[in-house]
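Just scan this pair:

***
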Amino acid sequence: MDWLPTEFPQYQHSAADGYGHYLFPYFALALHKEALRNPAGGPVLTAAWSVPRSDPLDIEQKLHDFALAQGLHPFGVYGEHLEQTPSVALEAPDSWYDRNALYQCEGTLLSVDGCHGRCRLATRDKTLLKTLSDWIPTIQTTSASTVSFLVSSALGFETQQLELPNKSPLCRENYTPEVLTGFDLIAEALVEPKPFGRLAILDGPQGTGKSFMVRALVEVVSPDKALFLFVPANLVSQLSGPNFVTVLFRLRGSTTKGKSLILVVEDADQALVTRDGTNEAGVSTLLNLTDGILGDLLDVRMICTTNRKLEEIDKAVRRKGRLICHAHLGPLPVEQARAVYERLAKQQAPKGVIDRPMPLADVYALTHQDDHQASPVRESLGFKLGRDERGKR
């Protein structure tokens, strides 16, 4: 194709060795340059999707068939292994599972990486972009433990779909009644058609079970009603930029029709604390997403965890109408900490071991100390495991 870089032959071997997804930005840039030289064909549109990694052979086969049906062709010798059927590929996994597929036609580049769960497109064909956007959700996983993660790449923001392990309900005995009330309130509000707030804050010292509460919310909210997108804290300040807004609108227009879009930010201190000139962008972005026009249009909800105290959080973040709930997770009262210990260790707590309020993680740690004669307990922090699962671990 005329738009391909003249250096393409020297990269062909690298593509065949499984590095095609690293070359995608290079070839996409060449496509952008061609669009500048020949603007009549329209601008270059880019998009990225996450695809299930549980069965990469099947996913790559489906995407391969889709690409051929749309008139796209594999790059040179790199496409030879794609002529195999999944059954043949299983007998020779090195020729399929560990490789990445690049497809092209005039003005279009498609990258398929089933092993890493990625599919990326750069095209001047609006119809193809819409067709692929509508088709991708039909092969995406919809289990309750499937979440998306926001990642930054050479082409901007992308989403990566992953499945959370250890499906287990929240162990309610590990939390105080006040925290459980907040948990139930948040779980209900996350899927409420007309929420009374869009932001939930979980604060408390380290080891009090905040992350496990987030995991429990993922488990308890039906995948038919919400999509969870985990966002690294260092990217929060960029969430109101055009790259991320494009990702949100793409999610809203395809995989999340009729669903709440729930952003999860752990250790979100810089987006929550009172503005001091160093965190203006992060706090402003959070305010816009939780009570601005953008949040309303996209039906965004947010869950943020922090180690900061309530009085340190910006007043605009705390105001009524924005907060779904603020739940403080502190050390467990002495009696409850002893009850958790005795449930896990299957023996009474030795005198003097728990004589003060104690974080949940510290109680679990005590059950593993040999000097207290506690049997090793493999119960997952914050969650219950069934009898059969405990026996296997």
The longest strand covers residues 146-153. The chain has three domains: 8-140, 172-328, 334-392.
